[in-house]
Design goal:
Blueprint: H1 2-7, H2 24-30, H3 53-62, H4 67-72, H5 74-78, H6 92-103, E1 133-142, E2 145-149, E3 156-159, E4 181-190, E5 195-200
Parallel strand pairs: 3-5
Antiparallel strand pairs: 1-2, 1-4, 2-3, 4-5
């Protein structure tokens, strides 16, 4: 912010390297997330990392067009065979990401959020009964299972053996992730110890 106040807007991503204490390593890690809309380099307003600019420039050169024309033209992009650009450092997944970004620069890779609601059948642990199937959100993951918020102020536990019935799971993160929305089945409720035992529905 101080640099921008003194020198005005950034003209391209490379200019960020002039910012005091923002070194090459920090730039490398951050560059793909930073956008410079009015840059003289059109890829500066995309998620394509500067390290991959030469790949896109070669694609454009092979098609005898500019990078900007390549980004604007679905017809030109359709002519690209990404297999030609595979190297020992750049594989198909990276090239696929680059092509998606050229198609929709600045797209949000996270996708739409799912609307989530707890069941209106349960409000307290007393409302929870064995056999119920309820929506929940993974709130914590341990080496022995995952805790699920089902909307009753007491987190239910899915033991690791119940995360993927019929399969042996070494690590719960193989199956679930934090904040994941899940459907669970209530196995048992211990009111005295305030414990809810769950399984994946």
């Amino acid at each position: 912010m101080d640099y921008r106040t003194e020198n005005g807007p950034f003209h391209n991503r490379k200019e960020l390297l002039k910012v005091p204490r923002l070194g090459a390593k920090a730039f490398e890690q951050a560059a793909g997330f930073l956008r410079v809309p009015d840059s003289d380099q059109p890829l500066d307003n995309s998620a394509v990392h500067p390290e991959s600019y030469p790949i896109v420039e070669k694609m454009a050169k092979d098609l005898k067009c500019t990078v900007q024309e390549l980004m604007k033209s679905p017809e030109l992009r359709a002519k690209i065979d990404i297999n030609k650009y595979v190297t020992d450092k750049v594989g198909i997944p990276t090239l696929t990401d680059i092509m998606q970004e050229l198609e929709k620069p600045g797209r949000d890779p996270r996708g739409p959020l799912k609307k989530f609601e707890f069941s209106n059948e349960v409000h307290t642990i007393e409302d929870v009964k064995a056999g119920m199937e309820l929506p929940g959100i993974i709130s914590n993951i341990t080496n022995f299972g995952a805790f699920v918020d089902i909307g009753v102020h007491v987190k239910g536990l899915i033991h690791i053996s119940q995360l993927a019935p019929g399969k042996f799971i070494k690590d719960p993160t193989q199956v679930v992730s934090l904040q994941q929305q899940v459907m669970v089945k209530v196995l048992s409720v211990d009111l005295e110890r305030q414990r809810i035992s769950l399984a994946m529905a």
